[in-house]
């Protein structure tokens, strides 16, 4: 029951790979009229939904971790470990909200911010693991017990696929064109 056979991996690859191939191909395919490809539609709508839900997922992670945090608080230096992890997760939540706002404002900086969010996924995970391990004096392999690696790896892979889409898509290029307000005011005068 605990093994994952090659057939399971093949099914996972098909479920993830086929939509990715179609998304990348449709993003790279030149349109007859590229000026019409603007706004949230098609694959970009799926990205917008995912980006909107990502802060909620982080908040749900906080709620699910509350019992674990209470148990860790009873250990020596446990409160320091919990406060550090909460601070890292709050910083990541703030980044997700900045990316969300830039997406909703159609800022030209959205692709770069999305890339920063993608890089932050493993960075937060690594920093959190090192922080918890060093503060509690526990070996890293005990901190990473169970399926602790599965969620960050899956998030990193899926977000990486969307990052590739963002940099290939004509619709993304046409949609995220707004500059900051002060630059617009300076160019108007």
Topology:
Layout: H1 6-28, H2 43-73, H3 78-104, H4 110-136, H5 140-143, H6 150-168, H7 170-175, H8 181-188
Helix pairs in contact: 1-6, 2-3, 3-4, 4-6
How would you sum up this structure, described in words?
The chain has 189 residues and is an all-alpha fold. The chain has one domain. The protein contains 8 helices and no strands. Helix 2 runs antiparallel to helix 3.
Key phrases:
single chain; mainly alpha; 8 helices; 77% helix; globular
Question: Gist?
Answer:
The chain is mostly helical. The protein has helices spanning 6-28, 43-73, 78-104, 110-136, 140-143, 150-168, 170-175, 181-188.
- Rg calculated over all Cα atoms: 20 Å
**Sequence of secondary-structure elements:** HHHHHHHH
**Proportion in β-strands:** under 5%
Number of helices: 8
Instruction: Please give the alpha-carbon distance between the first and last residues.
Output: 69 Å
Biggest sheet character: none
Uncertain residue segments: none
Find the count of extended strands (DSSP E, 2+ residues): 0
The helix/strand class is: mainly alpha
Q: What is the global morphology?
A: globular
Quaternary state reads single chain
The residue-averaged pLDDT reads 78
Helix content: over 70%
Overall number of domains: 1
